[in-house]
């Protein structure tokens, strides 16, 4: 799949970058704290999530102001501004859409669905909360905000460990670099502060769309109790609790999350081969089993080292492994069948 990047202007003149991938009924995806449409598409784990969601539908994502490909503006972060940016993107669709919010995108999606019931076909809320002030005690929130503001590098490392504890060390390092590339420290702090300030508890009862609340039971960034608040406050909402500790939807057991979401949206479950690998990925797996490094694999196949690294990461994610050693052992066991 290839994503299509474009821009739209919000009501107050902010330029919002958005991306579309796939074709069919729209699924608008309100992302979490920090975003970057281009860089997220280059992260194997995150791209795999979007490609899985975009099968048989049109997945639409956007960068909020000050993040990724959307320029910073003087206007401070607020729920009203979040809704204006979502309105600009929704206005390009011209039809009702499915709406999925993740993390900080959850209260934004709730507020939108409550205010614009005719636009939302189905609503999915993953890893979110109804009241940001309940995420952690005030001293902890103040410490994290201060860390992000004073030392963005260390702050991104700490938050990555909280957001994706199930990811391996190299993936967490890449995610920390990704966060720093998404925005400035000032924007990161402002949006994180907004996350703690958002409170949509009084809007839950106004949501009319069929709703699925999905949460991982060991999520360290958003307590599972907040998922229970969301599900209890929205009439008829389904609550799906999945095992795992990772807050980021593409970390941990991504495939099970995708299956739960697609089933609720009435979309076919993802199509995949017996082992889920492409011909090139099986070729790379064979070279991993022979002990070659990413650089040696790249030289052997005539590709960039970064491409080789991406293939290895996609193989690991598709097979549910945590290390190259597991890939090598898997390939060795299946050698006569491949």
Automatic annotation (TrEMBL):
Domain HTH luxR-type stretches: 270-335
Pfam families listed in its UniProt record: Abhydrolase_6 (PF12697), GerE (PF00196)
SMART domains referenced in this protein's UniProt entry, alphabetically: HTH_LUXR
Leader sequence residues: none
SUPFAM superfamilies: alpha/beta-Hydrolases (SSF53474), C-terminal effector domain of the bipartite response regulators (SSF46894)
GO molecular function, one term: DNA binding
Biological processes, Gene Ontology terms: regulation of DNA-templated transcription
Alphabetical list of PANTHER family matching this protein: BIFUNCTIONAL LIPASE_ADENYLATE CYCLASE LIPJ, HYDROLASE, ALPHA/BETA FOLD FAMILY PROTEIN
Name by which UniProt lists this protein: LuxR family transcriptional regulator
């Amino acid at each position: 799949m290839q994503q299509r990047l474009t821009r739209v202007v919000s009501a107050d003149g902010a330029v919002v970058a958005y991306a579309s991938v796939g074709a069919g009924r729209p699924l608008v995806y309100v992302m979490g704290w920090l975003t970057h449409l281009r860089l997220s598409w280059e992260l194997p784990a995150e791209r795999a999530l979007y490609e899985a969601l975009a099968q048989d539908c049109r997945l639409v994502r956007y960068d909020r102001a000050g993040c990724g490909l959307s320029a910073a503006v003087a206007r401070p972060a607020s729920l009203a501004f979040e809704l204006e940016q979502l309105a600009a993107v929704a206005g390009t669709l011209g039809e009702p859409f499915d709406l999925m919010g993740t993390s900080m995108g959850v209260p934004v999606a709730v507020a939108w669905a409550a205010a614009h019931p005719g636009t939302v076909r189905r609503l999915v809320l993953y890893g979110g909360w109804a009241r940001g002030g309940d995420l952690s005690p005030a001293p902890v929130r103040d410490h994290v905000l201060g860390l992000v503001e004073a030392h963005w590098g260390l702050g991104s490392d700490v938050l990555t460990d909280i957001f994706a504890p199930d990811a391996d060390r190299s993936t967490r390092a890449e995610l920390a670099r990704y966060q720093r590339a998404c925005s400035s420290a000032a924007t990161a702090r402002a949006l994180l502060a907004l996350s703690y300030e958002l409170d949509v508890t009084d809007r839950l009862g106004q949501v009319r769309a069929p709703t699925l609340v999905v949460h991982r039971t060991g999520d360290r960034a958003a307590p599972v109790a907040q998922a229970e608040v969301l599900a209890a406050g929205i009439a008829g909402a389904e609550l799906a609790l999945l095992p795992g500790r990772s807050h980021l939807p593409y970390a941990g057991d991504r495939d099970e999350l995708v299956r739960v979401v697609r089933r609720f949206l009435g979309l076919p479950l993802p199509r995949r081969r017996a082992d889920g690998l492409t011909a090139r990925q099986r070729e790379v797996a064979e070279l991993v089993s022979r002990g070659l490094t990413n650089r040696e694999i790249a030289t052997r196949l005539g590709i960039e080292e970064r491409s080789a690294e991406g293939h290895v990461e996609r193989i690991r994610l598709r097979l549910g492994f945590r290390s190259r050693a597991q890939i090598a052992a898997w390939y060795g066991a299946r050698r006569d069948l491949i």
